[in-house]
């Protein structure tokens, strides 16, 4: 499209990116061989015959649940600290090529600790990649630890305790000072996995503790769940952002509240098409959000699975909505303002 070069160069922030969702078929096979992890036999699941057949499977998910099965099965190849570092590093390299200047990335510690991988192995590996991204690519980063909502709240509480014991939440909570913020290895908490039936309010205790410790708060909501999953995250968890949030458009009063409270939605267009939330990008309420003053960023979610990294998502939105340069500048500014960074970094990005 004529705006492709402009979109490529626009300083982008990514806020909705699961590091485990960056596991490409090539990396699945490479790490399985290195770590001696058995993949499903091709008789049991023909998708695992080769990286190419696995890639073809990634293009055809029926729903969020269908995708999550594949996601949890694949991530079992991640075992050593170096595996986590490599996974995140490969993402940062591609993100830099796509014009990402600041990335706030999710990880799912319980998906690893449940398999016997130590919490600190995961965090150390991801942290090493974040430090390298800053040094070698000039990308600033934040780590956001997500709780899996299909597991009991007691498991989330144990995960919180691991983060506290490891000193990963230490910091004095001054969100305007970049140096203070950088001292905390884990900046925020999120909530992900199966949405419908696992209401946000179940996790009120760990989120209250997050707030007490000055940890930032977001939660997936309104992807497959109705708008009460969004209001539940705002009221029950005091979430500062909503991940996805596209079903907000079904509740005009809640939409006005999101505008007034300057809640950022982290929208993931290609993900929504892949997981059949909508049939095509043009059906997403992105024009409505822009016109109503809802702040949102555009993100890739699980790019290894959904056929595109962040610039692919920007271009898909442009193709569907044909925004003007000024509209794109507003989208980029809103995503900088919605980032969990201090004033110094904000001014650099603006
Ligand atoms: N985990 C990884 N990607 C996810 C998504 N899009 N929704 C919920 N949980 C997820
Ligand atoms: Zn997500």
UniProtKB/TrEMBL annotation:
GO terms for biological process: adenine catabolic process; hypoxanthine salvage; nucleotide metabolic process; purine ribonucleoside monophosphate biosynthetic process. Signal peptide: none annotated. One of its GO terms (molecular function) is zinc ion binding. Its EC number is 3.5.4.2. It comes from the Eukaryota. Coiled coil: none annotated. GO terms for cellular component: cytosol; nucleus. InterPro entries: A/AMP_deam_AS, A_deaminase_dom, ADE, Ado/ade_deaminase, Metal_Hydrolase. It catalyses: adenine + H2O + H(+) = hypoxanthine + NH4(+). The record marks 244 as: Important for catalytic activity. Catalyzes the hydrolytic deamination of adenine to hypoxanthine. Plays an important role in the purine salvage pathway and in nitrogen catabolism. This is Adenine deaminase. The lineage of its organism: Eukaryota, Fungi, Dikarya, Ascomycota, Pezizomycotina. The gene is AAH1.
